[in-house]
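quick one before i forget lol
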Amino acid sequence: MTSITRNLPWFIKDLGVSIVGQKCYVSIVENLDLGDVECLKYSLSKGVGIAIVVGGSIMKVPQLLLILGARSARGLSLTAYILETLSYAITLAYSSRNGFPFSTYGENLFLTIQNVFITLLIILYSPPRSARQLTTAPNPTGKLLTTVALMAAAGFALFTAPASALAAAQLGTLPLSLFSKLPQIAQNHRARSTGQLSAFAVISQIGGCAARLFTTAQEVNDPLVAAGFALALALNLVVGLQLYVYWGKGVAQETDTRAREGVPATEKEVYGQDEKVDIVVPPQSPAPYQATHSQQGSQSTPYGRKWARKVD
């Protein structure tokens, strides 16, 4: 068997060496030494890390498709996504500038990009808060432009900040992770529903955080990064539990809430349906009967009133 593994095509060997290094490639692949525990753990960590990066590149795509398909961001917390996006961006900048292997943090690049689009869609499809707002077509362009400008400024600051400030920011991802999930957890609890929250995204985040704890311990051994993934795993487990408990619920509650707010159920999405607004024109009072039949004299009729002028 080793005669085959030692004579693999050059491009396979180069790929293997680039992933696990020359030493572990020779030990695990060429010599098939399954007793080399250190290289086995390192190779497993690399494989899991690459899988997480690939999975992270599509993790939030189902969530994007749910929002676009429903033309609604019901059940998604804008605050939660803003804080989560900031946390991803800080981890991306911290890991990149510290020279960590891309396989240990690469998914943060793709998750940051996807979260930016989800945040903008939440702003675009934010529902009206009262019946009065239904009569005016929402114009989120200003909010969208402001959000894009703030995100660009934050990205520039992260990649130009001093190393000490960036380390402090990475430490700040711990409360950021906490506060990014608490609004979503609270909103799910209030609504007794997870709305348009994607089950695929939640399950992927749970699995990804658990796997990242392993890869961080094997390749980076940075307590700040490991603590962030541990906290994110715990919070994602809470969201996953809510997803299970509230699965399929929420439509009836939304209708009842709209009714209590005085918003007719048939008009709840009028702002998102090609900007159409019903205009009700009150009927005019009927013209007095005698105005159209003035030639019939001053005799009183059921439709008019007889008027008389007193002459002194």
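fyi The radius of gyration is 31 Å.
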